Amino acid sequence: MHLKCQHISKAYHDGGDSIYVLQDINFELAAGQSMAIVGSSGSGKSTLMHILGGLASPTSGSVNIGEKNLADLNDDELARIRNQHIGFVYQFHHLLPEFTALENIAMPLLIRGVSRKDAMQEAQQWLDRIQLDNRGEHFPSQLSGGERQRIAIARAMITKPDLLLADEPTGNLDDATGQIIYELLLNLQRTHHTALVIVTHDMNLAKKLERQFVLHHGQLSLCP
Ligand SMILES: Nc1ncnc2c1ncn2[C@@H]1O[C@H](COP(=O)(O)OP(=O)(O)O)[C@@H](O)[C@H]1O
Ligand SMILES: [Mg+2]
Questions:
Q1: Would the CB of 61 count as within 6 Å of ligand 1?
Q2: CATH says 33-56+83-222 is which class?
Q3: What sign does the CA torsion over 193, 156, 161, 134 have?
Q4: pLDDT digits (tens, 9 = 90+) for 28-78
Q5: Ligand 1 in contact with 200 (CB < 6 A)?
């Protein structure tokens, strides 16, 4: 599914002042393609990712996912697009602490109304795919940072999203573990033909993706 951003700007209001974090962002990402976004802390990377994922609205401009302009959707329609087409992975996994690894992976299907038996079966397959088949009954607090992030990726992928958004997914991990997470993301992208946007500080990791963009002074440009 094609992602198209046109003239996206975002202002935050601080008292009477508007601070523009994003100014006229334009890009397209075709189905199954990958791109990295690098940029210093505070450059607006998370703001952009939240807009792409329908978690925040731009001040102006439009985000199209396939035929749909996100701005035209009501809350229910947006929630459905998010659940059916978009996966999100955060820097800090955001796993639910009171649920096991397996249950965390199954959660988006349970939210969709899939039966517990089917959801858990599908989650088990994802646990195998991320090579954590012996960790299903562990709680997040019993897992390493890299393991938690793999669980978070499986949770984001279980709905077979067309678009996977990962906001500094390795920002909290050592280099070797970061490499493993990237290999996993790129493998899934190729196998499932998922479009992939990854935000990172690490240019070496960014180079593993098809295109590299930098966000600077609110503007997005291709890395030279
Ligand atoms: N809800 C908000 N209200 C006001 N300012 C915000 C809000 N969210 C982010 N910002 C500001 O927008 C800028 C970009 O933030 P962010 O998108 O989180 O950057 P990055 O992810 O690149 O570190 C920062 O200066 C931040 O303080
Ligand atoms: Mg951020």
A1: no
A2: alpha beta
A3: positive
A4: 999 999 999 999 999 999 999 999 999 999 999 999 998 899 999 999 999
A5: no
- Both tokens of 14, joined, read 């601080």
Pocket probe for ligand 1: among 8, 10, 12, the residue whose CB has the most ligand atoms within 8 Å is 12
Tokens, residue 112: 């969709």
Ligand 1 contact via 41 beta carbon (within 6 Å): yes
What's the 47 CA to ligand 2 centre distance in angstroms?
7
The residues spanned by each domain of the chain are 33-56+83-222
CA–CA distance, 183 with 150 (Å, rounded to integer): 11
Question: Above 80 in pLDDT, residue 190?
Answer: yes
Instruction: Please report, as a single letter, which amino acid is at residue 112.
Output: R
Core vs surface per residue 16-43: b (16+ CB within 10 A) or e: eeeeebbbebebebeeebbbbbbbeeeb
Instruction: Please work out, in degrees rounded to the nearest 5, the angle formed at the alpha carbon of residue 127 by the alpha carbons of 209 and 171.
Output: 40
